[in-house]
Each structure stands twice: as structure tokens, then as C-alpha cells.
């Protein structure tokens, strides 16, 4: 197969984006294992053991929803297989593969619009921190960005008359259904495409048919039609315990506003320049509408910002290239081709060097100071050594790690599965006990053998003198109920770093 110069340039841009985004992802997450990976692995392990997907919770001793529907079961199976085949390296490889696939679909969509590869490269530099934040090792949500990017490519092909594009995307949609509940977003963006086609008086009935087929395909999962009410309940839930559902201007996410606002200003400029063509029905509304809708969602809920980055990469280069500033930019790049490619090569080299310095292949499981989360590594090792069996009260973030390491000997009070496994009131009650130190009313309702808590927390202060502290390190402490025979261990300010599996 002969590779022409254009294909080679696009390949270099794609590789550069993968390296750039990988470096940003490693820098942003410190390669800390994603919080939800632990409960996904626990579920996958149980699926393998039972030979079927459980319909009831098996990890907690507190009240849980029935039936239990875990929309991330497929992502857990992929991670479990990667871990079994290649160990921690398999998880790293899975993360990189999802990121590379998302970039590939974005590049393919941009190329079909006959855009300039160099504009895409510049757009990637702007949006790198936004897309990379969705690729911690390895979160189920990462698959959603891949399937969303594939949807945009299918839509672009369909717009150009390739009617088989949407049907060919549907098998990926089935995978999306079984990896993450965010598949519901596909209906919104297909709806935007339908409105755009209707406005331009283009063929549009087949889009409605595709949406109807996708609605039927939602039932293709181990839980069948139970997925419909689950999704309806899930999308209406507030998630105050998950800070990623906060707006982009909130707390630690505020630095992300800069690339959002810069890129959004460029999008608005490009959209304004095409207003006349929009109203004359000569230009499709869908690309600009998709970007702006994804931007609004990402600004309101920072967890959704990678969708904006995907839409921006897929559509913005072509939109911007048709503006006076875009044409001037391309002319400047044409007059400085060698300088551009030398600079892009430097970006790739710097990304490789950064990945090497950050040792991206080494996963981190910290008990203190983690960007993604902290995990009770030392306390879990202590309980395993002591052969502890029983009911352990756990904070929201730490429960899944405990289950992966200690189930079935230890049942937990709470983990980060949220609506998947727990009623909202149960999540709130568990958190209230930790926030206020009111453990007595909690254990009266749900008898508990031991309580895991952070150092210097209201819970630690309330438990001191009432229950026996059997373990302490620099980040966590463990209290045992009276009569439970565990050997005390005090590691002072020492911290621990765990590992997979």
C-alpha cells in the first residue's frame, strides 16, 4: 500500500496527539489507579466465579438497591482481562489504547471535512488538558469518549452520503451500553444531527430510524429492559459526593476554565462567521451545535469536559479553516512548513521525555496525597495480616479498594458505586456519620465490627476512648468494637503505596 504525503502528515499529527494527551493524562492523574476500577474489578471477579452477572449486591452489609444494575460491568471485564493477561501493564496499555482510538476517530472526522492537519495539531495543544482528564487508568468513562468520537465520524460520513455509516456504528453503541451509562448522550447528539438535517432539508428520516433502533438496542445487556428505568433514575440524580459533577469554575477545576474559554472563543468566532450560511441553509448546524452543547455540559459538569474536547477536535479545524483568521493561519503555516513540523516534532519529543520522566508505565496506589483518590493501603494490609473477618464501616471513596483486596472476608458499608448499589439516603447517611462523627446511631442500625477513618477527622475524634484503636498510620486509622481481638499496630506518620492486583 502506497502512503502519500497527506496520509503521512495526518499519521504524524495523530501520533503527536496521542503522545501529547498521554503526557497530559499522566501529569494530571499521577497515574493513580482510578477510584472506580476497584469495584469494577470486584464485579468482574465475581462474574468469572459465578459464570453470570450478579443481580444483587454482594459487597456491602448496609441496605442496597434491588435488583442491582452495574452499567460498568463490561468495562470491568475488559480491565480484569487486561490485568490477568498482562498485569498492571495491561491496565496502562488499555488506557493508552482508548486514548489513541479517540484521537484516531477525531482525526478521521476532521480529515473527511478536508481540513488542514496542522490546524488539528494546534487545536490539540489547546484541548489536551481537557481530553486527557478523562483517561485515568482505566476509568469506564474513557470508553464513552471513544464511542462518542466514533459517533461523530459516523455522522460525518452519513452527511456525505455514506448511509451505511450509522448502522456500522451501532455495534460500538452496544459496547457503549455495556461499558457506561453515558450512552444516553448519543441520543442527544443524534437528535442535534436530525434537527440540522431537517433545517437544511436533507434526508432525515433514516436518522430517526437509527435513533429508534438504538433505543431498542439499549435492552441488549445482561439486565435486559431493566436498563431503561435505571438510566431514567440515574440521569435525574444529583451527585454531591462526586466533585467531578461540579461546575468547571469550582475549586480545583478552576484552572481548566482557561483552555475552555480560549477554545470556546475561537468556536464562537468561527460560528459567527458562518451565520449567513446557516440561515441560508447552506451550512450544517450540527458541528457548531454539537461543540457548543458539549461545552455547556462540560462547564456545568466538569466530568463532561472530555466530550467537548472530542467535539472540538473533530469539528473545529474545518470550521476555523473557513474563516479569514483561519485562512491567514494556514497561509502562515504554508510559508513556514519546516518550522511547523520541527516544532511539532519537538512537541512529540518533549511528550515522550515527559512520559519517561513520569514513568507512565508505573501505576500508583497512594494512601496520601493522591490526585485521583487516596487508598487505605496500610490498613488493608494490616487487616489481611490479622485475618480480620467481619463488617467494616468505610468512607465513600475507600470502600471499593477494601472490597477488591479483602472480599469475601470483609463486607463494607459504602463504596463509590453510588446509585448502582445504594439508595441515595444510604449514601447520605454514611457520609453524615463521617462528617459529624455520629457513628453510634449508624452502628445501631447496621451492626459493625470495625470502622476505617482518616486521621484527624471528626470520626477519629469521636471514636477515641469509645472503641479501641487497633491500627494507625500517617493517613488512616482503624477502630475495633469491644471484644474484637486484633493486635495493635502504630506506624505513626508513615505512609504506604500499594499496587495492582
Helix-strand layout with pairing:
Blueprint: H1 5-29, H2 37-50, H3 73-86, H4 88-112, H5 117-132, H6 141-159, H7 165-177, H8 185-199, H9 205-217, H10 227-235, H11 257-273, H12 275-279, H13 286-300, H14 305-321, H15 324-335, H16 337-357, E1 365-366, H17 377-385, E2 390-393, H18 399-406, E3 410-412, H19 424-436, H20 439-445, E4 450-454, H21 458-463, E5 468-472, E6 476-480, E7 489-490, E8 497-498
Parallel strand pairs: 2-3, 2-4, 5-7
Antiparallel strand pairs: 1-8, 4-6, 5-6
Helix pairs in contact: 1-4, 1-5, 1-16, 2-3, 2-18, 3-4, 4-6, 4-14, 5-11, 5-14, 6-7, 6-8, 6-14, 7-9, 8-9, 8-13, 11-13, 11-14, 13-14
Rounded Rg? 25 Å
Number of helices: 21
Q: How much of the residues is beta strand, in percent?
A: 5-15%
Topology as H/E string?
Answer: HHHHHHHHHHHHHHHHEHEHEHHEHEEEE
How does the overall form come out from the CA principal axes? globular
Proportion in helices: 55-70%
Query: What is the makeup of the main sheet?
Result: 6 strands, mixed
Strand order across the biggest sheet?
A: 3-2-4-6-5-7
Oligomer, anyone?
A: single chain
User: In terms of structural class, how would the helical and strand content be classed?
Assistant: mainly alpha
Low-confidence stretches: none
Our count of domains comes out at: 2
Gap between N and C termini, in Å?
42 Å
- Average pLDDT, rounded to a whole number, is 93
Number of E-type strands: 8
Description:
This protein starts with a helix and ends with a strand. The protein is mainly alpha-helical and 501 residues long. The chain is 58% helix and 6% strand. The chain has two domains: 28-56 and 68-227 and 245-357, no CATH class; 377-498, Rossmann fold (3-Layer(aba) Sandwich), CATH 3.40.50. The mean pLDDT is 93. It has 21 helices and eight strands. The strands form two sheets. A six-stranded mixed sheet has the order 3-2-4-6-5-7. Strands 1-8 form a two-stranded antiparallel ribbon.
Amino acid at each position: 500500500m502506497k502512503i502519500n504525503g497527506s496520509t503521512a502528515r495526518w499519521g504524524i499529527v495523530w501520533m503527536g496527539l496521542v503522545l501529547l494527551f498521554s503526557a497530559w493524562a499522566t501529569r494530571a492523574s499521577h497515574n493513580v489507579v482510578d477510584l472506580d476500577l476497584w469495584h469494577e474489578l470486584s464485579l468482574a471477579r465475581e462474574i468469572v466465579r459465578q459464570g453470570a452477572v450478579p443481580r444483587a449486591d454482594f459487597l456491602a452489609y448496609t441496605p442496597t438497591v434491588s435488583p442491582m444494575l452495574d452499567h460498568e460491568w463490561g468495562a470491568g471485564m475488559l480491565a480484569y482481562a487486561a490485568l490477568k493477561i498482562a498485569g498492571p501493564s495491561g491496565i496502562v496499555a488499555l488506557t493508552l489504547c482508548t486514548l489513541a482510538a479517540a484521537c484516531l476517530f477525531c482525526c478521521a472526522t476532521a480529515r473527511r471535512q478536508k481540513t488542514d492537519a496542522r490546524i488539528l495539531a494546534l487545536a490539540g495543544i489547546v484541548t489536551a488538558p481537557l481530553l486527557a482528564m478523562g483517561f485515568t487508568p482505566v476509568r469506564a468513562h474513557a470508553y464513552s469518549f471513544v464511542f462518542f468520537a466514533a459517533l461523530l465520524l459516523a455522522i460525518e460520513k452519513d452527511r456525505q452520503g455514506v448511509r451505511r455509516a450509522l448502522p456500522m456504528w451501532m455495534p460500538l453503541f452496544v459496547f457503549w451500553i455495556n461499558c457506561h451509562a453515558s450512552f444516553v448522550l448519543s441520543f442527544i447528539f443524534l437528535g442535534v444531527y436530525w434537527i440540522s438535517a431537517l433545517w437544511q432539508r436533507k434526508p432525515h428520516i433514516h436518522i430517526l430510524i437509527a435513533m429508534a433502533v438504538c433505543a431498542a438496542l439499549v435492552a441488549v445487556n445482561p439486565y435486559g429492559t431493566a436498563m431503561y428505568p435505571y438510566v431514567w433514575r440515574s440521569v435525574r440524580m444529583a451527585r454531591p459526593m462526586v466533585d467531578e459533577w461540579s461546575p468547571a469554575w469550582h475549586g480545583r477545576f478552576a484552572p481548566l476554565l482557561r483552555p475552555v474559554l480560549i477554545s470556546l472563543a475561537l468556536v464562537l468566532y468561527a460560528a459567527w462567521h458562518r451565520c449567513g450560511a446557516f440561515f441560508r441553509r447552506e451550512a450544517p448546524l450540527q458541528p457548531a451545535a454539537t461543540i457548543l452543547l458539549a461545552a455547556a455540559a462540560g462547564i456545568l459538569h466538569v466530568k463532561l469536559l472530555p466530550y467537548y474536547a472530542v467535539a472540538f477536535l473533530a469539528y473545529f479545524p474545518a470550521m476555523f479553516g473557513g474563516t479569514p483568521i483561519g485562512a491567514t493561519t494556514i497561509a502562515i503555516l504554508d510559508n513556514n512548513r519546516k518550522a511547523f513540523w520541527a516544532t511539532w516534532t519537538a512537541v512529540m519529543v518533549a511528550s515522550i521525555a515527559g512520559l519517561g520522566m513520569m514513568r507512565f508505565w508505573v501505576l500508583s496506589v497512594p494512601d496520601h496525597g493522591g490526585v485521583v483518590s487516596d487508598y487505605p493501603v496500610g490498613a488493608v494490609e494490616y487487616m489481611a495480616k490479622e485475618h480480620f473477618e467481619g463488617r467494616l464501616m468505610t468512607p465513600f471513596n475507600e470502600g471499593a479498594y477494601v472490597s477488591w483486596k479483602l472480599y469475601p472476608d470483609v463486607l463494607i458499608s459504602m463504596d463509590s458505586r453510588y446509585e448502582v448499589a445504594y439508595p441515595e439516603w444510604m449514601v447520605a447517611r454514611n457520609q453524615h456519620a463521617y462528617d459529624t462523627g455520629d457513628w453510634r446511631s449508624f452502628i445501631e442500625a447496621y451492626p459493625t465490627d470495625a470502622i476505617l477513618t482518616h486521621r484527624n477527622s471528626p470520626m477519629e475524634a469521636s471514636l477515641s476512648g469509645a472503641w479501641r484503636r487497633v491500627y494507625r498510620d500517617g493517613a488512616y486509622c482503624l477502630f475495633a468494637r469491644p471484644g474484637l481481638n486484633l493486635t495493635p499496630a502504630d506506624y505513626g506518620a508513615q505512609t504506604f503505596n500499594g499496587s495492582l492486583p
